[in-house]
TrEMBL record:
CDD domains linked to this entry: secretory_peroxidase
Chain positions of site Transition state stabilizer: R70
Organism whose genome encodes this protein: Brassica carinata (Ethiopian mustard)
Requisite cofactors: heme b; Ca(2+)
Active site (UniProt): H74
GO molecular function terms attached to this record: heme binding; lactoperoxidase activity; metal ion binding
Record-level GO cellular component terms: extracellular region
InterPro entries: Haem_peroxidase, Haem_peroxidase_sf, Peroxidase_pln, Peroxidases_heam-ligand_BS, Secretory_peroxidase
EC identifiers of the protein: 1.11.1.7
Binding site for Ca(2+) 2: T197, D248, T251, D256
The protein's name: Peroxidase
PANTHER family noted in UniProt: PEROXIDASE 72, PEROXIDASE 72-RELATED
Binding-site list for Ca(2+) 1: D75, D78, S80, E92
Enzyme class: oxidoreductase
Amino acid sequence: MAASLNILIVAVVSLIAFSPLCLCSKAYGSGGYLFPQFYDHSCPKAQEIVQTIVAKAFAQDPRMPASLLRLHFHDWCDASILLDNSGTIISEKRSNPNRNSARGFELIEEIKHALEQECPETVSCADILALAARDSTVITGGPSWDVPLGEETRGASLSGSNNDIPAPNNTFQTILTKFKRQGLNLVDLVSLSGSHTIGNSRCTSFRQRLYNQSGNGKPDLTLNQYYASMLRKQCPRSGGDQNLFFLDFATPFKFDNHYFKNLITYKGLLSSDEVLFTKNRESRELVKLYAENQEAFFEQFAKSMVKMGNISPLTGGRGEIRRICRRVNHVY
């Protein structure tokens, strides 16, 4: 699974990726093994079913691929983001990064229902998230990769979701530290942040950049001021918190490298995006590389997604295969 940012990244991606990508927080180095052929015999049509339903959803709602990709990134651990409140669980849907922004839950349940009809109690909700994220990337023009499969699921962590998912105004070092805790590095951070090539963010996630970035009543000078003036028209000092803005205004529904081109011209929407270009020399060079070479970005993005999915997965009967993704099985 995507360890959250399946933990982090900052800050992903709905074509409501409201706020930065995220990763799932797991104990790095203590999991089992995943492999793309996991369901070849137990549920051979699994990947086809997921792909078909994602494609249908995209045709009806062009925002959905980004929403699914963001769910995967913001999943704190093993499909925990999908769980509703219960007597023993406080849902991650209520965490600050997800409240009023995470979406696509109904589609995941639709996929789960179809898979239960095909092969009951076989395909995990964590694997559904991972496959839907891959298919969402591909259907919007991005790269493909062999998804590591075989991950089981467990409970939720509201505190983990609140504390481990990078915030839109986190510093570069804070974001990098959160990635490193998951066994990811600076290259992974920059490439995975490229998922913000699709999706939206709310006014409340970047308003500070427009009016009071450093607490001195002045805007963020690393934000192109003409672009800032355009944003202020729909993101006032007060009100309009839920107004949506494209993370990549150039090609908002296409998975490409325009996100990085925007950063170079100081038109990254979120501070947590723009700092990749302004606050670290190595990160800046990667941004420039990916802006110039989309193939290099796609290749590294696919590698980093596989790496993230392999971070200490829950396997071997230590978790469960939920029958419904929003509830653990013992609720029945």
